[in-house]
Amino acid sequence: MTAQTAQTAQTAQTAQTAQTAQTADRTMLLVGGTDQHLERAKALGVRVVLLQHPDKINAFQTGTADALLMVDYTDWDTVRPLAEAAREVWAFDAVVSLTEGGLDIAARLNEHFGFPGTRPEVSRRLRNKALMRQHLRDRGASTMHWDRVTDRESLEDFARLAGFPFIVKPTDATASFGLIRVADAGALDAAWERIEELRGRRTDRGSTLFTVHEFLMESYLDGPEFSVEAFSFAGRHVVVAVTEKLVDDSHFAELGHALPARLAPEAHARITSAVTGFLDAMGVADGPSHTELRLGSRGPAVIESHNRVGGGHINELVEAAYGIDLIGYGVAWPMGLVEALPEPPAARAGACTRFVLRDPGTVTAVSGVEEIAARADVLAVEVSVRPGDPVRPLRDNWDRLGFAAVTAADTDAAVALCERLTGEIRIDVAPHAPDGAAGPDRSAVATHDMEVAA
After folding, report:
1. What is the spatial distance between Cα 218 and Cα 130, in angstroms, rounded to a whole number?
2. Same-domain status, 7 and 89
3. Containing H/E element for 449?
4. CA–CA separation, 342 and 42 (whole Å)
5. DSSP secondary structure string, 125-151?
6. Of 174, 196, 219, which closes a domain?
7. What range does the domain containing 58 cover?
8. How far apart are CA 220 and CA 400, in angstroms?
């Protein structure tokens, strides 16, 4: 172990164990935190004022936060005076958010109170994919054709420019919600109908805090897909991990994540250089980032990025493989309670998440979860459905039924183990009956094993 690597490992530990003398009189305003975010903040020994949406609050949060303010935290006109009053009472030292819906408000509050951190315009550019594309175009850094959807004819105009296939997506949704792959001219009508169906509606799955207003058209990107998990320290970007995405181009649901990504050194360098350059261009200064890209005929091409930790249990994978808790850093860095990472950490293991998928129908039985959870090499496992629940056709990440996350000696071993264990999760599904036919015969259950190529 080199001296720098040892220092990196020691720094990771300090993110979790802040000194009492440093934290005794420090308070953060946490916007829209999850249970994990609140746990990490309290582990620092600081006071936490939680600004939480009424739809998101739970018993753990009410019992753990030092103070709780329930309000729609996406409404600036309501949040600003409430936050001003909260600062008079609790004198918080920083505003922190690691959840998609709270990022913009946290950035605005930090600027309002004169705290450091990513600026509101930067957060907005990352949230809104059209603003991101326009910002890159203005700086000569655009690598693809793109435009806003205005009407049915704009789809045809874009097809003539970019060719088929191309991608249509909401400018400010998450988790692949509302993505449309327009394969050919015959798909244009269906794409326009789907746009009209979704426009003006709140996202109906995952985070329901966003309303779909605008759609973007982009060139289709070929090549394998990756994400880069990074942390920025006062404008210096440290790539913590490159994550290999396990995907199927027939739909937009991610099948899993594996890291360290199995890349040749030259490809790894191209990806990390592209992402740090992108973060510079976007103006990211502080905190975690999760940037998705493909490495194909256009070179490393960024799809989208977020100034938060990646979902899909990536934080658990990073911690298992590198010993770095990105959520811990995300709450500690704004409070001045952790040292900056001096260099990218060295991997000490491999890790993988696999998601559980099944064909549409009705769940009749679930088993095998407890046995998998008891294994020492399993980081987490969960199934989100019970007998009687419907299984919808697979469209995006919210149609997945569960997951298993594991660690192993290297990435190959982790992927193989995760694929085997998710196959041992048994979810029996009675297929939906064809239109006009009788309902499903609950005695004739179709059992679908997990069969997804890495």
Report:
1. 10
2. yes
3. none
4. 25
5. HHH-HHHHHHHHHHTT---S-EEE--S
6. 219
7. 3-123
8. 24
Nearest to 418 by CA among 355, 368, 348, 371: 355
Query: b/e string for 189-200 if b means 16 or more Cβ within 10 A?
Result: eebbebbeebee
How many domains would you assign to the chain?
4
Report the CATH number at residue 340. 3.30.470.20
Distance, CA of 299 to CA of 339 (rounded, Å)? 34
Q: What is the mean pLDDT of residues 365-377?
A: 95
User: Does residue 452 lie in a domain region?
Assistant: no
pTM of the complete model: 0.85
Residue 354 reports pLDDT greater than 90: yes
- pLDDT value, residue 395: 72
Instruction: Say yes or no: 237 and 340 in one domain.
Output: yes
**Are 180 and 150 members of one domain?**
yes
Same domain, 242 and 320: yes
Instruction: Determine the 3-state secondary structure of 433 from DSSP.
Output: coil
User: For residue 163, is pLDDT > 70?
Assistant: yes
**Beta-carbon contacts of residue 201 (< 8 Å; ≥ 6 apart):** 211, 212
Please, are residues 176 and 249 in contact by the beta-carbon 8 Å criterion? no
Q: Would 136 be classed as within a structural domain?
A: no
Q: What is the CATH number of the domain that holds 160?
A: 3.30.1490.20
Residue 412 has which token pair?
Answer: 């190959």
Q: Output Rg (C-alpha) for the chain, integer angstroms.
A: 22
Mean pLDDT calculated for residue range 175-203: 86
Amino acid, res. 13: Q
Q: 294-304 pLDDT, tens per residue?
A: 999 999 999 99
Q: pLDDT of 4-29, one tens digit each?
A: 444 444 444 444 443 444 565 899 99
d(CA 70, CA 56) in angstroms, rounded, equals 9
Closest CA to 406 of 429, 428, 422: 422
Check whether 103 has a pLDDT greater than 70. yes
- Locate 99 and state its tokens: 């959840």
Question: Token pair of 413, please?
Answer: 């071993």
